[in-house]
Every structure is written in C-alpha cells, then in structure tokens.
Amino acid sequence: MLREFKVPCGDSEKRFLLDDELLLYHFEPKLPSKVTLKDEETKVREALERPIGTDRLRDILEPGDRVVLLTDDWTRTTPVHKVIPLVLQEFFEAGVREKDVTIIVATGTHEPLTETQLRRKLGSKIVEKFKVENHDPDRNLVKVGTSSRGTPAFINRRVVEADKKVAIGGIVAHPLMGYGGGAKIIVPGVAGTRTVDVNHAMGDHQKAFVGIADGNPVREDAEEIARMVGLDFIVNVIMDPRSRIIGAVAGDMVKAHRAGVEEYNKIYGVKVGEEADIVVLGSSPRDATVFHGTFALPTATPFVKEGGTVVWVAACLAGAGDREERLAFRELMSMDPDEMIRSIKDSARRGEESLASIFDWHTCKVLHRNKVVLVSDKISRSEAEEFGFNYEESVQEALDEALRKEGGSARVTVLPVGGLTVPVYD
Fold first, then answer.
1. Are the CB atoms for 51 and 251 separated by under 8 Å?
2. Closest CA to 349 of 154, 194, 224
3. CB–CB of 386/365 below 8 Å?
4. Are 193 and 352 a contacting pair, CB within 8 Å?
5. Which segments of 72-163 are extended strands (E)?
6. CA separation for the pair 257, 150 (Å, rounded)
7. Which residues have CB under 8 Å from 393's CB, separation 6+?
C-alpha cells in the first residue's frame, strides 16, 4: 500500500509516496504535542533551580564579580533571547552589577554577527543594555596552556580574565563533537584559529562522530581546555525542529551536558540496525546554506549500505553562492578522503591554513561512499552539478530513480529531521 511521507524543508515540507513493503524504517522524534512560551520558560527555570554537578548559579556568583556570559552564534538556532533574561536574573540575585557583565558571542572561526543578527539572537533590549562583543579568533587571545593531547590553548583574553564564566548553548547533533553544547562554547567558541585547527585535526578518530560524546577525543580535548579556562556554569537547551525549547539542563559543563545528551537521545536517537539501500534524509533545521546542510550527511551513513543512495533534502535558503565557490567545493570533494585528512593534519601540525576543513572531510567521505542526490528549491540542477552533487527536482523523482537502480528488493529508511537525528549504538 502506498503511504505519504513528509520531510521538513525550510518553512514548508517535501512530500512523497512509498510502498509500505519497501519501508525499512521511518523515524519520528518523540516530541511534545504542544509547546508554549510558558513551557519553555519553565524548562529553563527548573534547570537553573536544580543544577547538575554545581551549586546554583546565584550561589556561585558574588557581588563585584566581573562576569562573562557566552552564547552561541547565528549558525545555531538556540533561542538565546528566551534564556538570557532568566540567567541574568540569577546574576542580579547574586548581586552582580549590569556594568560588570560582558556578553560574548562565541563565533569560533565563523563571521561576526551583524547588529541585526545580534538583536535577533539576544533581543534588542539586551543589546542596548549590556556590553556585547563578537569573538575574534585571531586577536586579543591569551595562551592558557597546552592540553594533554597537544593542543595549544589560545583563548579570548576577556574570557580568561573574567572572574566567572557562564555559557548558554544548545544540545544538537554535531558531525565532529557528537553534540553541540557543553565545552564546545570554549573550543571552538572563544578559541584561537590555531587551537581550533589542532583540535579539529583529531576528527579522523572513529569516535569523533555524530552521536558520540564520551571517548570522542575532539570533545574531550575541548573539555580539558575549558577546565583550564574555568568555565563555571552552563545552560544548555534541547529544541524541537521549530527551535522551541523542550528540555534544558544547567550546571557543570560535563555532568550537565551528558545529562542533556541522555535526554536528547530519548527524543532524537535512532538505534543503528539493518542498513537500507536508500535513505531519505532531511537536513532541517540547520540547512540555511548548502554547507550547513552538509552537516546532516554523516548521520545517514550508519543507516545506508555502502554504494547506496542518500536523497538529501536541504532548503539552502541562502541560495547557491557564487560559481567560484561551487567549483572550488567540487574540486575539494573530488579529493581522496585519505589524502584530504592527511593534508588537514599536516597543516595543523605546521600551523598553516588548510585547504579543507574537517567538515569538508566528513562530507567528502559520504560523497565517496554513497550516491548523494540533492533536492532543493533554491539550487538549480546546474548549480548542484557545479557543487558536485547529483540533483532531482523532487524527492519523489529522486526516490523513484534510486528504486529503479536498486531493483525491486530495495529497502528505504526515512529520516525527516536528519539535522537533529543521532545514531545510537548498543
């Protein structure tokens, strides 16, 4: 019997039909039926009132403390503007003065936020009332030491010199550090380019993968450096596909984070089992650009056979960019993955800029392992081909073509929110 499936794509969705007999698995996250602003506030308040692994924030802070409040940046959908008033309330109850609070957007090596982006991320009243800065990975840094894995820890000077460090972030799937949140706000968030490059060069470890936190050397290296810096307290939220808060944890950057990971897995975790011939993968909600959309691709590999097809649905709202960028990306993706990772690691050792990032390598591995077919309203067939992707106008066309290629016994797995989904291993 034919059944209709939906995959979120930007502000709308893509629909397609599939015979039930061909379906191996269809994942639907375990989400609350209704989320109100009051529900979101309650989740954050409860987390702040019952921190994990630390005292309550208002008891950690003292009058006269110079406090740095870190937040994630525009590439993350964390609704910081909903969280920050509740965190500041704890500051003021502890006697911290407004003039002693500096908000730093932990951009890592991303572009700084514009005034408009800052207001959208933090709220206009916060931007007007407090000192707000974007992190710069190449200026105003201080070395706090070297990690046991050999990463030189260059960190934003204002963060290092603050009396207390507090962070707001989100727990989401991440192809390199397993999950967002926790110590990631320090590395790469407020780290220098050299620190980020050396840390990320460990990304070829088998545990440096989406859905893995413990034993992940990239994350554990970041956690060690965050301890050197003295990250005092985190507030991490879990969001639904519309970026509404459906869970929150607060407290110690590792203990609270892992509790959040456990909660996240109950919502977005998919047990790894039989591999399908075809995976339909939505990259929502982090798919505003082609490059952000690629973050979802590694999630597909535990669920699809080598040589199988990934039908990749990505909104790409920012469009295709310029032709030079597309052709440069295709050239990168044509590299052998082993050659690419050697280049990345060699560049990190020499302290030189690499032609490719560790995220390029993760994408490259998928493209060499599987046939990836892009479905996007904002990318044309010719533009997709310039990127090096296969392309179809609709999920239905891509799926029908893949089924013709695989034959009548093909099995299909559907992961509608691949940008949030994590594989769970026994």
1. yes
2. 194
3. no
4. no
5. 101-105, 131-134, 141-146, 152-156
6. 24
7. 375, 381
Question: Contacts from 346-351 at CB under 8 Å and sequence distance 24+?
Answer: 347/197, 347/201, 348/197, 348/198, 348/200, 348/201, 349/201, 351/194, 351/197
Q: How many CA atoms lie within 13 A of 90 on its CB side?
A: 27
Residues contacting residue 45 through CB under 8 Å, at least 6 positions apart: 86
| Cα-based distances in Å from 380 to 206, 320, 321, 376, 426 | 35, 8, 12, 8, 41
Residues 303 and 411: their CA atoms lie apart, in Å, by: 11
Q: What are the E-state strand segments in 87-221?
A: 101-105, 131-134, 141-146, 152-156, 164-170, 173-174, 178-179
Judged against a pLDDT cut of 90, whether residue 149 lies above it is answered with yes
* pLDDT value for 66: 98
Half-sphere exposure of 305 (CA within 13 A, CB side): 11
Pairing of strands 245-251, 233-239: antiparallel
Q: Could you tell me the sign of the dihedral formed by the alpha carbons of 359, 363, 366, 372, in that order?
A: positive
- Distances in Å between the Cα of 403 and the Cα atoms of 20, 226, 301, 341, 406 are 14, 48, 18, 33, 5
- DSSP 3-state of 19: strand
Q: What is the pLDDT of residue 74?
A: 86
* 408 touches 160 (CB < 8 A): no
Pairing of strands 152-156, 141-146: antiparallel
| Total-model pTM | 0.94
Instruction: Label residue 412 by pLDDT band (50, 70, 90).
Output: very high
Q: What is the largest CA-CA distance in the chain?
A: 71
Q: Report angle CA 177, 208, 338 to the nearest 5 degrees.
A: 130
Cα-based angle 336, 175, 363 (whole degrees, multiple of 5)? 25
- Are 4 and 15 in contact by the 8 Å Cβ rule? The answer is yes
pLDDT at 147: 98
Query: Under DSSP, is residue 205 helix (H, G, I), strand (E, B) or coil?
Result: coil
The share of the chain scoring above pLDDT 90, in percent, equals: 90
